[in-house]
Amino acid sequence: MKNILELGKAIVLAKITKKKIPLYVSLSVTSRCNSNCLYCSVIKKKTQEMTTEQILKLIEDMYKSGTRWLSFNGGEALLRKDIDILVNFAKKKGMFVSLFSNGYLVPQKIDLIRKLDCLVLSFDGKKEHHDLTRGKGSYDKVMRAILLVKSVTNIKLLTNTVITKYNLCDIDFILETAKCYGFFCKFNILYKSDENAQHVTRIIPTNGEYSDIIEKLIKEKRKGAPIVLSFKALKYMLDWEDFRTYYMTQKNKNKNKNKNKFKCLGGKLFCYIDTDGTVSPCIISKKFIKPLSCMGLGFETAFLNTSHLSCQECLYSACLGYNSMLSLDTNTILSGLQLLLK
After folding, report:
1. How crowded is residue 109: how many other Cβ atoms within 10 Å of its Cβ?
2. Where are the alpha helices (DSSP H) in the chain?
3. What is the pLDDT, as a whole number, of residue 57?
4. Domains of the chain (ranges plus CATH)?
């Protein structure tokens, strides 16, 4: 709670001063992964990982620059042998620390998991459909992780679902599982990139199917379903005209005309740091800007000089969530408090 209050104070201060402050940082610590999901191309990245000393220095610089929420991502972040050192250091600085995982290594790393404020696990639905996208045996591993985390820790647990043609009928199952075990869910529109296009093209839902699912999520959230995304973000997603166009740049800005405009705070109040130490407003923006490296410039300089986003609108649910929270959207704050008090 102390960390949450510190984050809240920092958000208010940033809003008053209108300064660029990296309140939330998503840090990729490795591109290695022990899974090979159909729609993910991270294991194809050939970027050099930062050393332990480099990341510790980076976390120190983040804190001095105003970061109060740090998320460790990958690849599979738990594959790093020094992940305990990195998490412990961030916690000692007083940061709110979350970590994304597929769940495979949670049993071996349960002592570390206990130190987190929040764990996010990949969960794509029923066993048949989860294994189709994330690999044979992956469902059993994530369910084992969920059961273990809920039984031996007090940390907040979320699951992350990528909506595909395979799991369109699994939303009720996912929400019922969340209610049964006491965790919250978030849902992502399938992101198509040059690297994963071959696999994604055949499993991406139609515009109508996506609209139906988002309408269902709004309906279930109104009934009290444990869905993290705010109504504001869900309604924004519902108004998206073409779900195959994931974000809007100057070149394709007329393809979607969303009446619920989002003022993006990427590069202003949050950012993404890739495995090699390059800083971008968000993970999507790396597609069309030249990111600066904090290895040579230092984190604060790289963040302050990060290029402005050229995208006009965005469908990345994580960014929608960050924008809602950091803009002090009332509905999002109430959802966050609900998550904390559950």
Report:
1. 18
2. 2-17, 52-65, 83-92, 110-113, 127-134, 138-152, 171-181, 197-200, 207-222, 231-238, 294-297, 299-304, 317-326, 330-341
3. 97
4. 2-341 (3.20.20.70)
Supply the mean pLDDT for the chain. 87
Cβ-defined contacts of 232-241 (< 8 Å, 24+): 232/260, 232/324, 232/329, 232/331, 232/332, 233/317, 233/320, 233/321, 233/324, 233/332, 235/260, 236/260, 236/262, 236/320, 237/189, 237/315, 237/317, 237/320, 238/211, 238/214, 240/210, 240/315, 241/207
Place of tokens 């890739």: 274
Instruction: Give the pLDDT band (50/70/90) at residue 188.
Output: very high
Q: What is the pLDDT of residue 10?
A: 78
d(CA 273, CA 268): 14
What is the average pLDDT across 22-49?
87
Specify whether the CB–CB gap between 234 and 218 falls below 8 A: yes
Asked if residue 197 has pLDDT above 70, the reply is: no
